[in-house]
Design a protein that fits this description.
- The structure is a homotetramer of 213-residue chains.
- The first copy, chain A, is mostly helical and 213 residues long.
- In chain A, 69% of the residues lie in helices and 0% in strands.
- The first copy, chain A, is built from ten helices and no strands.
- In chain A, helix 1 crosses helix 4.
- The longest helix of chain A has 27 residues.
- The first copy, chain A, is elongated.
- The N and C termini of chain A lie far apart (44 Å).
- The C terminus of chain A is likely disordered.
- At the A-B interface, helix 6, helix 7, helix 8, helix 9 and helix 10 of A face helix 6, helix 7, helix 8, helix 9 and helix 10 of B.
- The first copy, chain A, binds a DNA duplex (21 and 21 nucleotides) through helix 2 and helix 3.
Chain lengths: 213, 213, 213, 213
DNA sequence: AATGAATGAGCTTTCATTCAT
DNA sequence: GATGAATGAAAGCTCATTCAT
């Protein structure tokens, strides 16, 4: 059985992605959910309340993945660990991107959202901090190069996913899951190896695998 | 002398950053600019027209920097070239971030903006492509490691700046120019060196390549 | 044991005085009474039905006092008889003032209330008539001056109380019982003696007892 | 030429008297005034603002009459002076009665109205004070009986008019101007002469003074 | 070119009322 | 009798846009 609140949250997610907050009216949400407009106010107080419920719902298992990252230090390979984390991050970022965009368009909503995120220790800054801490720990074990600035690397990795989510949204394109997966792998490979030529690797090897897209 | 259109564009930029599009009314824009509401319609046709004028105005010299990037191939150092490009990119991203947010909140506006950007070859995809082409060229010269996936590296670098701009906006913080400059340098250093320990570290530790497709 | 209907009536009286009908919702009434909203409809049919029950309940012993007034003709003093009657009238007027206000704001409710009052011979006009009849009877006995217009005097006396009740409500002040009592006594004294100087009383006597308030 | 604001004020007065505030919608006001709903907000900010404009407009020349009352001390006859003042008072009270009633139904509006009245020194208390001061001055001249309590007499007189206005409204009756005029004259005559039989009646009958405090 | 009063469609929100449990 | 989630009509209000001056 789907409850009224669930119907409303699902309808809102759908419409937000399709039309953008500014075009999504409470009337339309109720219609799409197949319930009366009043139900929205009964369950969520107001439109903003519903929006925040949608954000919560969008978090999925990202939080859990974030909490477990510290346990991975020294386990498996750094690349695999990063990959797992970024998959979860991207799923989250993809779901919230329509809302984050909308919040930037309304600073009143934004202020309210910021406060909620702060209270729950789940803001964007926190993700960066957790990832940076992980990288630093691996650095101590010698599994990450000493020259690396952990915070900077963490930003680079997470920004990549967030950016991709925003672009998908911006360009109204919809990468399939395999494309997403490959994009994440590519980012990690690039960041793992670094731009500077390695001493041992002769620069004679030409490769061109990534150019046709 | 400041013309009426200039006054309107400046007022809009200010209010967009301060309050977000959803809270910015034509009345408020006119008041802030010190002109009548009707003037807005004389000069820009409608509110969306004004918005697009603001985007154009926000581009600054970024376009020029982008055009000149191919000429830098093989010149100076890769790091310096990237740094110069990212500085200009960030300045642009910082200015447009309030507008990008607003566009994501209103897919009708977004569609119109997308069309304009496509016509002018100035969309976000274009920046990535130009930067990727630059990196590939440097790679052919051996100034960038062979394992690097140019497109992926370009995304990583630009995403970093865009992300930072969005976060500044999201968190209502305002990094000073020096902090911005340092952040960009850090990103480049991190990406240049790569996460994997360099040759000096005994190469016995095998790291998993994530290239299997 | 307090029944559900009693709880609802009390809650309504309280909220009506505190917030005014326009701000009193059925939900709030139910909450204050500690019962479900539906109960209101079981017991009173609709919100207007509840309101009329509150009016009935507010009548207290005023009706009885009114009925007994004719029996007082020629008994005790005119002043004491009037005082007793006005005390009861004021208590009633004080209780109904929030409701009278509300009725004046909604002529649909008002029409319904008017009908009920007419059927029960308890409208405001009836009070004036009863009091006027009493004064006329006393006039025949020579205990009230012959020049007095009984209906006019009755209006003056009742208006005074109604007015005071409305003002208490309007000014959100709350005269204590002693102040009310004194005000009624003053009104009666003033009306008893009349404004015109009495032949026998020399106007040389200065008095100033009432000026500091 | 009738301006938009004037049209709105007139329409509101009409509808308020006919239907009561709770039944008067902004849509209906605009329709009756023959202007767009937005005009209401352009000129008065909100519905409450319009209401206050209606009150101001309803004041007519009452304020002026009130200001001039002190100049009448010792002039003409007390009865005529009172009559003139009460005529103006009633005209005002009659016009505002629909609004006063409505305010009592909505304490939020009421609070705002109270504040405005206080700032303008034009509340109901002020009228009583001015009239009481007049009576006291006449008392010093011996033109009003020494036993009279000026404040109480002032209340009695003004309450009479306010009450009549409320009743006209409550009973949906509409006294013609002559009836109003006569009622006012009757009230004054009654209050001038007083209820107690005059000297011609043997003063042997002791009446109880109710002054003990 | 510039003005700003006027417009009115459409928004979010409220709340008396119903009805399955 | 009692409950309270669900309803949906209708309210106050906003704001991009027009147009006579």
């Amino acid at each position: 059985m789907t409850t009224t609140s669930q119907k409303l949250i699902r309808a809102t997610e759908l419409l937000l992605r399709r039309d953008g907050l500014a075009r999504v009216t409470t009337r339309e949400i109720a219609r799409q959910a197949g319930v009366a407009e009043g139900a929205l106010y009964h369950h969520f107080g107001d439109k903003a309340g519903l929006l925040h419920a949608v954000v919560e719902h969008s978090m999925g298992d990202f939080r859990e993945v974030l909490e477990n990252l510290p346990l991975k230090v020294g386990q498996g390979t750094v690349g695999k660990n990063l990959e797992h984390m970024l998959q979860a991050a991207f799923a989250f970022q993809f779901r919230v991107s329509p809302i984050v965009g909308s919040l930037l368009a309304d600073h009143q909503l934004l202020a309210r959202a910021r406060e909620i995120l702060r209270q729950r220790c789940i803001g964007p800054r926190r993700s960066v901090d957790v990832l940076a801490a992980y990288l630093q720990a691996e650095q101590r074990l010698g599994r990450v190069a000493a020259e690396v600035i952990p915070h900077s690397a963490a930003e680079l990795l997470l920004a990549s996913g967030f950016n991709a989510a925003m672009f998908d949204h911006f360009l109204a394109r919809d990468m399939g899951p395999e494309a997403v997966c490959q994009r994440i792998k590519d980012s990690i490979q690039t960041l793992m190896s670094g731009l500077e030529p390695r001493c041992s690797v002769p620069p004679t090897v030409q490769h061109d695998r990534i150019t046709e897209r």
